[in-house]
């Protein structure tokens, strides 16, 4: 299962002397461990005036690269305002809920707790009631006991993790120490990554069985329609070609390229890979797809 991840950065006034440290942590100690994620987005949250939440997207949730992420993080200016954590979580959940078939993760970096009358535990509970399961991984910079208690509740409720970093002095940034502080985050990510890999292996095995059964069924049908002219490319094992069957003319030229797609249920949807699509475009008049 693919994963989408949003990073939420506390941009309240109290983060002013920690923002340089936060940038280093994101770029050096967080982003490199998100290579499993299909899409990554980054937002800041604060409440500059009248406790009105301001959630700013600095990197759209999309397929990104290191250069885009680095540019977005380095462009962050000076934090200002209060800390609307509840609004930030709700905003991120609303963004992620569109990805129904994806694992969803929120990584929230903060040095405090909600001070804009929001209830972020209620937001997490409501998301779960709505069937929107987002793991929330909180990375706290010098949190007091009350803020840490709230962070642990959220991370536990969402099956995420909580990591505490005590010293965020820019001049004393120690990557070894930071990595040790983030061990809970790394362990949680690794565990989920391993579970996804297991699911992928199981799905791959199932898909291979479905593919084999579908091709065997189609092979019987094609042999009745084109006696002695059917070449099954995968008959003796996966050929890794861009089609499954060829119907040959007497001179050995190809009359039809045939692709076989299968499903274990009543699904009416199938997908062509890039190379399969290219073959279709190049041979539209003699390309056929059978859905078993």
Count of helical segments? 8
Give the helix level as a range of percent. 25-40%
The number of distinct structural domains comes to 2
Largest sheet: 6 strands, mixed
Q: How many individual β-strands?
A: 10
Mean pLDDT: 88
User: How far is it from the N-terminal to the C-terminal residue, by CA?
Assistant: 24 Å
Write the CATH homologous superfamily of the largest domain.
Answer: von Willebrand factor, type A domain
Measured on Cα atoms, how large is the radius of gyration?
26 Å
- The helix/strand class is alpha/beta
CATH class of the largest domain: Alpha Beta
Quick structural summary:
This protein has 292 residues and is of the alpha/beta class.
Describe what you observe in this structure:
By secondary structure, the chain is α/β, with parallel strands linked by helices. The protein is built from eight helices and ten strands. It is elongated. The mean pLDDT is 88.
What order do the helices and strands come in, and which of them pair?
Elements: E1 3-10, H1 19-30, E2 39-46, E3 54-62, H2 66-74, H3 85-96, E4 103-110, H4 120-129, E5 134-141, H5 145-157, E6 161-165, H6 175-181, H7 183-225, E7 230-232, E8 245-248, E9 254-261, H8 274-282, E10 287-291
Parallel strand pairs: 1-2, 1-4, 4-5, 5-6, 9-10
Antiparallel strand pairs: 2-3, 7-8, 8-9
């Amino acid at each position: 299962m693919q994963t989408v991840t949003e990073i939420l950065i506390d941009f309240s006034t109290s983060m002013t002397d920690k923002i340089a440290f936060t940038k280093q942590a994101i770029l050096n100690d967080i982003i490199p461990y998100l290579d499993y994620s299909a899409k990554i987005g980054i937002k800041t949250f604060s409440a500059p005036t009248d406790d009105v939440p301001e959630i700013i997207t600095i990197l759209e949730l999309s397929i990104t690269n290191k250069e885009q992420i680095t540019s977005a993080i380095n462009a962050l200016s000076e934090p200002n305002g209060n800390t609307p954590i509840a609004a930030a979580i709700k905003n991120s959940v609303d963004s992620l809920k569109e990805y129904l078939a994806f694992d969803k993760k929120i990584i929230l970096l903060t040095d405090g707790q909600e001070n804009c009358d929001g209830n972020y535990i209620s937001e997490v509970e409501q998301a779960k009631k709505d069937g929107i399961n987002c793991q929330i991984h909180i990375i706290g910079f010098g949190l007091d006991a009350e803020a840490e208690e709230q962070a642990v509740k959220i991370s536990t409720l969402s099956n995420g993790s909580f990591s505490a970093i005590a010293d965020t002095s820019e001049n004393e940034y120690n990557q070894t120490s930071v990595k040790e502080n983030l061990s809970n985050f790394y362990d949680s990510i690794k565990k989920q990554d391993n579970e996804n890999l297991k699911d992928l292996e199981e799905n791959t095995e199932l898909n291979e069985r479905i593919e084999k059964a579908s091709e065997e069924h189609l092979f019987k049908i094609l042999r009745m329609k084109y006696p002695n002219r059917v070449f099954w490319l995968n008959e003796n094992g996966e050929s890794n070609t861009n089609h499954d069957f060829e119907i040959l003319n007497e001179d050995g030229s190809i009359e039809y390229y045939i692709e076989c797609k299968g499903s274990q249920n009543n699904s009416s949807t199938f997908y062509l890979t890039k190379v399969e699509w290219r073959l279709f475009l190049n041979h539209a008049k003699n390309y056929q797809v059978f859905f078993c």
